[in-house]
Amino acid sequence: MRTQIVIVGSGPSGLLLGQLLAKAGIDTIILEQKSKDYVLGRIRAGVLEQGTVALLEEAGAAERLHREGLVHEGTEIAFDGMRHRIDFKALTGKTVTVYVQTEVTRDLMEARAAIGASTWYEALSVSLHDVDGRRPRVRFGANGETHEIECDYIAGCDGFHGVSRRTLPEDRISAYERVYPFGWLGVLVDKPPISDELIYVNHERGFALCSMRSKSRSRYYLQCRSDEHIEDWPDDKFWEELTRRLDPETARNLQPGASIEKSIAPLLSFVAEPMRFGNLFLAGDSAHIVPPTGAKGLNLAASDVGYLSAALIDRYKRGSTAGLEAYADRALARVWKAVRFSWWMTQMLHRFPEASGFDRKVRAAELKYLLGSKAAQTSLAENYVGLPY
Ligand code: FAD
Ligand code: PHB
């Protein structure tokens, strides 16, 4: 087979890239190791920046998002038994949209199916060849046979555990990492959200987050130990612990119910540099991971794809490779700012087991400063709604 661009991975970054390129008449093949249903069943992120929404519009996959997404003009931070609102709209003129990643994926898959672009699900043992040479190729197994695709470029959109980053020679890649000493226990429940906006809770027993998927479905998280298992957390225990971390008035609005999904996610910051090696370009989680506290993972995948699609379109429509040359530096500059913001939100809002009395006092002072300073709130707001591309 032959195509212009092979995209490895059909998560949000691979699918969005495929759609933006298709709109410009550029041919792609997507290779995904899992089944379509598996990809659609993964429960993940929920908050979209305006820039992400704009790219989904450009990709022709934002119609349902505009109908069903919930526009949020602010968020709340709970600390010392009080809730404080950060007004994104007043501070930055921008908003965010709550629309779940599963639905973003579904809309992009449907848009791809509508144009008849090629996707191989359950592609086995994907391997990349000659990525820095003249004949980049991707090999994979399907239907009991081995297939090979020749292409101009390869987009590694295959997430943190994918094959693309691992194809780079070890001595050509620098990895920067921080593992946090806790995880997030998430529960999804078919009950209305506790409040109209998200509530990020700093509490001496640990962080909590009250989020939502729709007006009738809520998503809650509790900071938990990294070594805990979901079997240790029956629903009753989860609701009891969440109630203890909320102020009494908020807790009164909580509508517990039977969980329809429950999972534990480790918290990690990770960046691999560079994001380009020859004709291979990494985008999204394949190059970087952030802890979810800043709601940035999916949005960073989208901004990478924004830069990469523009660079590839320039290459095919105007014959200029300047955008491709600049891709890694431009993407990484934005990535590191989001890594910093996600780290900052995480260290400010969580309880660290090794924290000294001094550390705790400084953290409390930081929260009090934030909640009393318009300048500090503007800084949080402009990062949360998304820095410009
Ligand atoms: P992915 O969504 O990981 O997609 C990569 C795709 O590549 C997958 O479909 C995978 O099956 C496929 N693939 C992998 N290896 C291969 C291979 N060898 N060959 C072919 N295909 C392959 N972000 C937030 O902002 N908020 C959250 O609450 C949040 N929660 C998260 C919870 C979890 C458990 C995880 C893992 C992530 C979470 N994120 C969250 C991050 C967010 O979901 C990701 O940043 C986003 O999915 C990145 O999109 P992606 O397309 O780059 O990668
Ligand atoms: C979510 O709804 O899953 C969510 C929202 C905001 C975050 C993280 C996760 O910061």
Description of the structure:
The chain has 389 residues and is an alpha+beta fold. It contains 13 helices and 20 strands. The chain has an 8-stranded mixed sheet. Helix 12 (357-372) crosses helix 13. The chain is globular and about 65 Å long. The two termini are 35 Å apart. The model has no long low-confidence stretch (mean pLDDT 97). It binds flavin-adenine dinucleotide and P-hydroxybenzoic acid. P-hydroxybenzoic acid binds next to loops.
What level of helicity do the residues show? 25-40%
Number of helices: 13
Strand element count: 20
Structural class, judged by helices and strands? Answer: alpha+beta
Average predicted confidence as pLDDT: 97
Q: What is the CA-based Rg, rounded? A: 21 Å
Report the uncertain regions: none
Residue fraction in strands:
25-35%
What is the makeup of the main sheet? 8 strands, mixed
> Which ions, cofactors or small ligands are bound in this entry?
flavin-adenine dinucleotide, P-hydroxybenzoic acid
Gap from first CA to last CA: 35 Å
Anisotropy-based shape: globular
Strand order of the largest sheet: 6-5-14-15-16-13-17-20
Write a compact overview of the structure shown.
This protein has helices at residues 12-23, 36-41, 50-58, 63-68, 88-92, 101-115, 164-167, 235-245, 248-253, 297-318, 322-349, 357-372, 374-385; strands spanning 5-8, 28-31, 47-48, 70-72, 74-79, 82-87, 96-98, 118-120, 124-129, 137-142, 145-150, 153-156, 174-189, 199-201, 208-212, 218-224, 259-273, 276-277, 280-282, 288-289. It has 389 residues and is an alpha+beta fold. It is globular.
